């Protein structure tokens, strides 16, 4: 039997939402206190839409009772499914695993902390029915306090747009609906180091933004520290731009030209005026400066080499420890490649 994507390509028509279902993928890490209210609101919102649906929770090896609660929810409603990683692989990998296991004609990604209102999924589906292939929630930051975090977020978007090869969905996070064609495209991408927002922009397709005001986190606290956000930003830039490498090439050319000009100036001054310029202080400053430049350059090269090293090892994206409600489970999530279907 042909897959849905094969059927769509053969017919050249858009998927009929009324004949297909929705999948909602929710990554979860220590979210036991949020699962009950999340599922209650999700089920109510999805039943109002009137399409068959499944809710797929990906437990990123939580230390609390997230998995036990998920198993209980599955016993009460088989439409609630889940898989649990063998260790903590991170949110981006959890989303990738969810996309690989989702079976719907459209797949919704959202967080488990209820900052993403489930009631907005109905609006996403309406836009999808109109022909949009990516519908994403765009944060309305009008009422937010203009703190350091918001300022850094804006600077990151501007930096990425300046140096990256794609334009990110501004103020768009992991609250989005993807058409099956988009999901198939994302599942075919081979890289292990995954920056989801960049990948969603890279695949293209028709997209529509739906503004929303994020709610407060229902329970628990965020684990996104400034350090983790910094590392995510670093991964994003190195994954989608080679400009940092080019900058040091340009700087090397500039420094070489300045050095040649300065050397010519000293030589001519000595020959013409006979002035001997010891320049011990300037020599020490120059040595320290260029030593720092070399260390920074090595650091940038190291970041890119580290990414290459990670990719060529070709370890699995994730390993599934156990699952509930799923007919087929990709227990070893291998990255796609030339010899991997």
TrEMBL record:
Protein name (record): Glycosyl transferase family 2
Primary location: membrane
Cellular localisation: Membrane
PANTHER family: PROPHAGE BACTOPRENOL GLUCOSYL TRANSFERASE HOMOLOG (PTHR48090:SF1), UNDECAPRENYL-PHOSPHATE 4-DEOXY-4-FORMAMIDO-L-ARABINOSE TRANSFERASE-RELATED (PTHR48090)
InterPro entries, sorted: Glyco_trans_2-like, Glycosyltransferase_2, Nucleotide-diphossugar_trans
Keywords linked to the UniProt accession: Glycosyltransferase, Membrane, Transferase, Transmembrane, Transmembrane helix
Domain Glycosyltransferase 2-like per the UniProt entry, residue ranges: 23-184
A Gene Ontology molecular function term of the record: glycosyltransferase activity
Source species: Thalassobaculum fulvum
Lineage: Bacteria, Pseudomonadati, Pseudomonadota, Alphaproteobacteria, Rhodospirillales
A Pfam family matched in the record: Glycos_transf_2
